[in-house]
Amino acid sequence: MIPFVREMAFEYGRCDAVSPLIRRVVARNPGPFTYLGTGTYIVGHGEVAVIDPGPDLPEHLDALLAALGGERVTQILVTHDHADHSPLARALSEATGAPVAGLDRPSAPHIEGPTVEAGDDMAFRPDRRITGGEVFSGPGWSLETIATPGHTGNHLCFALAEENALFTGDHVMGWSTSVVVPPDGDMADYLASLRLVQAREFATLWPTHGPPVTDPAPFLAAYIEHRLAREAQVLRLLAEGHSRIPEMVTVAYRGVDKRLHPAAAQSMLAQLIKLVSEGRVATDGAPTLASDYRLP
Ligand SMILES: [Zn+2]
After folding, report:
1. What are phi and psi of 195, to 5 degrees?
2. Distance CA 253, CA 283 (A)
3. If you measure from the C-alpha of residue 186 to the centroid of ligand 1, how many angstroms do you get, rounded to a whole number?
4. Catalytic residue among 84, 104, 121, 186
């Protein structure tokens, strides 16, 4: 079992100091994929960086500007271009003069079908494209960019050296597992990115949604184990003679709220794409939600 952490003291729009170098303002956009809402982080004092400005809500922009008072924003950083993370970056940049760094994907394939995420921000255009390794710093703080593809192809995390902490965006979420939706989401990349974070032995993980993970080692081990258990489950269902995603989801998620089945189907597709690419599962043509699968 993943030791989920869901308790968090906050109020929408209020700025809370959550560590010596980190403040957080939560936007009023709660939902099935955003939990309590988007947590925007302010790093440093006096000259600061802002991570994941959030959704395009005027009240959230006002709250951020009030929290920043007379401080200077030197950098706006974006973990990925989902609609609950990046849209406010442009307005915050215009209000503060700070440049936006992140990674866009102008030619992203658009996904048809049921929405299982907060949606893409196709208008996202950073002033500076970053791909991992870039370091941003200010008085008493430095943030290292770490590429963590998987949840999206362009997902980035930011490591705060002074607190051995990682801002994880949607790569690791304390309150739930992360959604990996093909074709942009990639399960093989996702697992590799989880192991990358695991290897760095951070003391604290700060997800964009929900409270921090303060004991990352057992949490990440369980998080990875959960994905491998899902993979084993798919292989077992195939061995039992099931061949299509809809029927496998019905069996595997018996008793689970049916509204979550579309997301479960996308996750299963992500698992199957990985297994097919590894030669452990066979199908005819490119793997889709409607394909027939079998063990080779
Ligand atoms: Zn996301």
Report:
1. -70, -35
2. 23
3. 13
4. 84
- Nearest to 85, CA basis, from 130, 111, 124, 58: 124
Opening angle at CA 25, ends 21 and 31, nearest 5: 135
Cβ-contact 56, 35 below 8 angstroms: no
Annotation says 84 is catalytic: yes
The residues, any chain, with a CB within 8 Å of residue 264's CB and separated by 6 or more, are 249, 252, 253, 256
Tell me the per-residue pLDDT of 155-213, one tens digit each, with 9 for 90 and over. Answer: 999 999 999 999 999 999 999 888 898 988 999 999 999 999 999 999 999 999 999 99
Boundary (domain end) residue, out of 168, 190, 214: 214
pLDDT higher than threshold 80 for residue 294: yes
Beta strands 72-77 and 100-102, pairing class: parallel
Cα–ligand 1 centroid distance for 80 (angstroms): 7
Domain of residue 250 covers 224-294
Q: Where are the alpha helices (DSSP H) in the chain?
A: 58-68, 88-96, 187-200, 216-239, 245-252, 261-277
Residue 192 to residues 28, 188, 242: CA-CA distances in angstroms?
33, 6, 28
> Angle between the 216-239 and 187-200 helix axes, to the nearest 10 degrees?
150
* Residue 48 shares a structural domain with residue 170: yes
Instruction: Please tell me the predicted confidence (pLDDT) of residue 113.
Output: 46
Overall pTM > 0.85: yes
Tokens 């494209």 sit at which residue?
129
142 has pLDDT over 80: yes
Closest CA to 124 of 152, 163, 96, 146: 152
Q: Where is the domain boundary, 214, 234, 250? A: 214
- Domain of 142, CATH number, reads 3.60.15.10
User: Domain total for the chain?
Assistant: 2
**Ligand 1 center from residue 242 Cα (angstroms):** 31
